[in-house]
């Protein structure tokens, strides 16, 4: 095929490819709709990629109809050279359209059909998601989830029976709400929304339970300490159960991230420990090798071991100390730091004679000595040195470690 020179003003500044649906933003620069939507909505950037000007005052995407027609005409003229004409793009949904659909969805007979239409609209592009949010879809979907089950409608689908609540939850997660939207969602129903998601995790389908915990993860990233401190014991029980059931990789990561968000607070650490979090984490660490999952588990274990209840649960597990020690220098720098912090908490606050001897027999002491020899961060080395110093007398004459290994290090 003869090489054709594409006019430079047909090229999207982001992808450097010919635009299919050119739109102009407030700075006057034109981009392909798909690329600029990803830049603004998915990547959460608030500047123009070319001019670096702020878009805070407005992120409206105006279709550049004239340029699109030029591109389509150019494609038609060059069809003999193998250039295909782009079809005219489907226009984004309008706010009145969404309001009409939401009104129809209030009818029990029309609700499931309307929800499916909303799901289809949301799946098309990010502009539709933002339009749905501004038109009040978030509040409507949240009200379906909060309301009791007495008015639920069920419809059979390929994967089984789907309820209106299941459908609403999947759409709500799919919307990828803005920060302000997430904050508003937290307060939906006078704070009842978190309790509603907890009930979904307890009684819902596997898919809905996954959506519930993934939506919680997004919400907790922008929530206030007041909300996080008000969580009930049942919440922790259900999040840990989702983790235990291994519904999906995404649900597992989201469950861990939710717990990491809420466990910097002392009372939440106790609730998480009482929900059986430690045993689940240790069991998973024995089999898991995925880097990010291991990091999250070790970070969470570190948080929980800052409480007496968490340390007791770790020590009660036959593989607790062993797996924490094993993960040092095997996951990542973050993983090693967390594992060493766990051992430091155990040594400082829970070091009974039997625990000290267990650490020796499991090879923990040898691993800590290795930490002092490699590049793993000054804080980690300092904590390792402190642990060795705490119990130097108990470990110095043990046949379980090489002669004079501990004496090689000045404490």
Automatic annotation (TrEMBL):
Annotated function: Functions as an E3 ubiquitin ligase.
UniProt entry tagged with the keyword Ribosomal protein: no
U-box domain boundaries: 5-81
Domain of life: Eukaryota
Keyword annotations from UniProtKB, A to Z: Transferase, Ubl conjugation pathway
SUPFAM superfamilies: ARM repeat, RING/U-box
Enzyme class: transferase
EC number of this enzyme: 2.3.2.27
UniProt xrefs under Pfam families: ARM_PUB, U-box
Source organism per UniProt: Solanum tuberosum
InterPro entries reported in the protein's UniProt record: ARM-like, ARM-type_fold, ARM_PUB, PUB22/23/24-like, RING-Ubox_PUB, Ubox_domain, Znf_RING/FYVE/PHD
KW Coiled coil (keyword) present: no
Protein name: U-box domain-containing protein
Gene3D superfamilies to which the protein is assigned, alphabetical: Leucine-rich Repeat Variant (1.25.10.10), Zinc/RING finger domain, C3HC4 (zinc finger) (3.30.40.10)
Pathway as given in its UniProt record: Protein modification; protein ubiquitination
Catalytic activities: S-ubiquitinyl-[E2 ubiquitin-conjugating enzyme]-L-cysteine + [acceptor protein]-L-lysine = [E2 ubiquitin-conjugating enzyme]-L-cysteine + N(6)-ubiquitinyl-[acceptor protein]-L-lysine
């Amino acid at each position: 095929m003869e090489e054709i020179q594409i006019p430079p003003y047909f090229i999207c500044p982001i992808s450097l490819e010919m635009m299919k649906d050119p739109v102009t933003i407030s700075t006057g620069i034109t981009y392909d709709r798909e690329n600029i939507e990803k830049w603004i909505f998915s990547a959460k950037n608030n500047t123009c990629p070319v001019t670096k000007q702020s878009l805070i005052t407005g992120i409206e995407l105006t279709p550049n109809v004239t340029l699109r027609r030029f591109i389509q005409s150019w494609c038609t003229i060059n069809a003999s050279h193998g250039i295909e004409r782009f079809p005219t793009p489907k226009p984004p949904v309008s706010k009145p359209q969404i309001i009409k659909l939401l009104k129809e969805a209030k009818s029990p007979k029309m609700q499931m059909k309307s929800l499916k239409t909303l799901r289809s609209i949301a799946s098309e592009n990010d502009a539709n998601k933002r339009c749905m949010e501004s038109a009040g879809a978030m509040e409507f979907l949240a009200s379906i989830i909060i309301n009791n089950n007495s008015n639920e409608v069920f419809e059979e689908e390929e994967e089984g029976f789907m309820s209106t609540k299941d459908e609403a939850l999947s759409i709500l997660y799919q919307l990828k709400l803005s920060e302000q939207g997430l904050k508003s969602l937290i307060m939906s129903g006078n704070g009842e929304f978190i309790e509603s998601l907890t009930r979904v995790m307890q009684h819902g389908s596997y898919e809905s339970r996954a959506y519930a915990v993934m939506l919680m993860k997004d919400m907790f990233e922008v929530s206030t300490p007041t909300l996080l401190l008000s969580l009930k014991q049942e919440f922790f029980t259900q999040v840990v159960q989702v983790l235990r059931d291994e519904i999906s990789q995404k649900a597992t990561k989201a469950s861990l991230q939710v717990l990491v968000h809420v466990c910097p607070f002392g009372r939440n650490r106790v609730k998480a420990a009482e929900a059986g979090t430690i045993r689940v984490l240790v069991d998973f660490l024995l089999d898991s090798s995925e880097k990010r999952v291991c990091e999250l588990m070790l970070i969470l274990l570190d948080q929980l071991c800052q409480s007496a209840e968490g340390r007791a649960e770790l020590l009660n597990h036959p593989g607790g100390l062993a797996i924490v020690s094993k993960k040092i220098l095997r996951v990542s720098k973050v993983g090693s730091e967390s594992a060493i912090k766990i051992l430091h908490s155990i040594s400082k606050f829970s070091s009974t004679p039997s625990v000290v001897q267990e650490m020796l027999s499991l090879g923990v002491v040898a691993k800590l000595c290795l930490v002092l020899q490699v590049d793993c961060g000054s804080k980690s080395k300092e904590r390792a040195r402190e642990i060795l110093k705490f119990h130097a007398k108990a470990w110095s004459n043990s046949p379980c470690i090489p002669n004079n290994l501990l004496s090689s290090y000045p404490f």
